[in-house]
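Sequence decides. Our protein:
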Amino acid sequence: MPENTKTSPASQTLSRGIRILEVLADARGALTIDEISARLGVHRSIAYRLVRTLEDHRLVTRDAAGAVGLGARMAALAAGVAHDLQAEALPELTAIANELGMTCFLAVLDGGECITLASVEPRHAVASVAQRPGARHPVTVGAPGKAILAQLPSAEWPAGAPSSLPADVETTKVRGFATSHDEVIPTVQSVAVPLALRGQRPAAIAVVHVATALDDAAIAARLQRSAEAIRDSLAG
């Protein structure tokens, strides 16, 4: 009987290698081989061989103490994802971050998740919320997720959405922006606007902050100007 590819990966080794990259991307710093093996649920020797292979391809690096982190080669690969979109979005994200004093980021739909594709922290802010490229969370929570789902029919939404989501997405459609408070990260607030681009996955531009004197509508108006600029640039 053929193996069920939905539950069993075609290559377990490749799947584990990809999981290591995901684990490192989610980590706040470098991890030891023991920590990696524990998070993957595999023997230390297996984790070590996988890390060595990734290291050979410069996808990970190890410091003098043997701790493992993502390598510079990962940045080069990431830059190739939606290259035109990132190139057009980065100047706008930078302008928003510095004008509002908030971290601004571009998020896209990936399966049932909302993935941060690019992010810019404000230059002169005393403190800002970090939102690293590659960060991900279910698309059914958070302002960027609502802004993305507002571009999709509900039949295409992932299963298991909160009961409040349809009303939240409808509100997003009516007023043109989404908000969230404490949904993804405790104490963190977010405002996001849809970024619908022909031929590309649904996206959103968003900011995250802990507290601000600006109201959500004013923040959204600034995000919408940049969304329009990005759409115009890519359409031209």
